């Protein structure tokens, strides 16, 4: 089996496990994530942080994002521009939301486009080394690569439930590793880049 085929298999298995979490339990687990990371990540007021609004059975990061906004974080969420590109539009409190592609919602085209310094990264599977499997389109890998080409080095925090961990993610040359993972069990660091 090729790495791509194995990733597809692991993606399907772990997303099915995530989908099987009852809605009320998923809500409780999302609140646990906010409790674990609400004050655990150090950042200065004005720091740009990309989160995401949940689709399908993803964790709901809105409680965590609200806490970080209260600490002075400048929030943004992804918007899909085309099949290859996402940008991060500023999420201002009370702004109207609209469809932004791939089933997501976020601010409209008039919102400021920001370069995140901290990124909350959705995923389908992860391992203990900080390797992740995304949803298969490569949007985040390309977005992170573009930020790095600008000389930026965003801190990457994967967002998942414990059931999405696998023994090993097959690494490919284009893959970008996480700095940390946040699950309902807590925040686990893979490098020393995150405060």
From TrEMBL:
Pfam families with a match to the protein in the record: 5-FTHF_cyc-lig
Catalytic activity, EC: 6.3.3.2
Record's keyword annotation contains Magnesium: yes
Highest taxon of source: Bacteria
Reaction catalyzed: (6S)-5-formyl-5,6,7,8-tetrahydrofolate + ATP = (6R)-5,10-methenyltetrahydrofolate + ADP + phosphate
Assigned keywords, A-Z: ATP-binding, Ligase, Magnesium, Metal-binding, Nucleotide-binding
GO molecular function term, any single one: 5-formyltetrahydrofolate cyclo-ligase activity
Listed cofactors: Mg(2+)
PANTHER family: 5-FORMYLTETRAHYDROFOLATE CYCLO-LIGASE (PTHR23407:SF1), ATPASE INHIBITOR/5-FORMYLTETRAHYDROFOLATE CYCLO-LIGASE (PTHR23407)
Protein family per UniProt: Belongs to the 5-formyltetrahydrofolate cyclo-ligase family.
This protein's name: 5-formyltetrahydrofolate cyclo-ligase
The organism of origin for this protein: Rhizobium mesosinicum
């Amino acid at each position: 089996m090729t790495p791509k085929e194995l990733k597809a298999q692991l993606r399907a298995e772990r997303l099915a496990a995530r989908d099987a979490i009852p809605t009320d339990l998923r809500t409780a687990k999302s609140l646990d994530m906010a409790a674990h990371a609400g004050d655990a990540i150090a950042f200065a007021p004005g720091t740009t942080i990309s989160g995401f609004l949940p689709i399908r059975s993803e964790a709901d990061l809105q409680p965590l994002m609200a806490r970080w906004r209260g600490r002075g974080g400048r929030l943004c969420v992804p918007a899909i521009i085309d099949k290859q590109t996402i940008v991060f539009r500023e999420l201002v409190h009370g702004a109207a939301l609209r469809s932004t592609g791939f089933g997501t919602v976020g601010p409209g085209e008039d919102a400021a486009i920001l370069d995140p310094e901290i990124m909350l990264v959705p995923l389908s599977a992860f391992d203990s080394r900080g390797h992740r499997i995304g949803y298969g389109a490569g949007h985040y890998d390309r977005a992170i690569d573009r930020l790095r080409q600008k000389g930026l080095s965003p801190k990457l925090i994967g967002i998942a439930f414990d059931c999405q961990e696998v023994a090993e993610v097959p690494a490919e040359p284009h893959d970008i590793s996480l700095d940390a993972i946040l699950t309902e069990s807590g925040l686990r660091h893979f490098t020393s880049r995150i405060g």
